């Protein structure tokens, strides 16, 4: 007897609600019927997945192992259903967009807004990562329909290049006195840096840029977010290096272009030939880049 999607759905629902009673109510099934399905699943897997408590439930060690696989199976089943509907010409389901946290501003919001005017009934789920390798791995595993991110090396599926994102140096007011617009990275070898917490694609880019200039940056502060790095640099805690698209128009610290320039090629890519809905999203990204090249060009300068 094979494990069914219904059994996995019931198991996940009990975990998420913490209650057999609430899970049954949410699924519109009887509690005895739900309990029977869970017990059948446990028999098939050779042991208990849930520990029944006076109030609620708790995962057993086996349950903790099974849970992520159950979630993944349900997600893949839903993706398969959506793919079938789209192939039949039905606008349905969710569009899963994989990207990096640092790219969730700038081009993505505008492109999504334009795309949703054509597909208002299709929801969007952003699947965001801190590192390019994680984004690529998620795409290879089928966790997203389309990715917007740094151009992956040796990608074998469909890919459209959309330009190169420029990185900029940011610091407190007066750190890069006007009229200077560029700063040799080597001049900042002794400066404190607002760095990024590894593993992070932004940390890798900052390290590589500084190492190419002949030094290892001294991290005075580390953060996970580019927006936090900007605020910390503005406050005088160090120099940072961030993508131009995350620098807001109201930023009143100092900005300078690093020399040599630090650029990150960006692409939109999929595993297989995109369906019409996904293809329209890719077109929206490309159109937005052409219509508003400022997403990939030098940021606003105070």
UniProtKB/TrEMBL annotation:
Q: Name one GO molecular function term.
A: DNA binding
Q: Which Gene3D superfamilies match?
A: Periplasmic binding protein-like II, Winged helix-like DNA-binding domain superfamily/Winged helix DNA-binding domain
Q: Please name the InterPro entries in this protein's record.
A: LysR_HTH_N, LysR_subst-bd, WH-like_DNA-bd_sf, WH_DNA-bd_sf
Q: Which PROSITE patterns match?
A: HTH_LYSR
Sorted alphabetically, the Gene Ontology cellular component annotations on this record are: protein-DNA complex
Q: Which UniProt keywords are present, listed alphabetically?
A: DNA-binding, Transcription, Transcription regulation
Can you give the residue ranges of the HTH lysR-type domain?
A: 1-60
Coiled coil as a keyword of this entry, yes or no, is no
Checking PANTHER family in the record gives: LYSR SUBSTRATE-BINDING, TRANSCRIPTIONAL DUAL REGULATOR HCAR-RELATED
Family designation: Belongs to the LysR transcriptional regulatory family.
In its UniProt entry, what is this protein called?
LysR family transcriptional regulator
Q: Which organism is it from?
A: Streptacidiphilus fuscans
Which classification does the entry list for the species?
A: Bacteria, Bacillati, Actinomycetota, Actinomycetes, Kitasatosporales
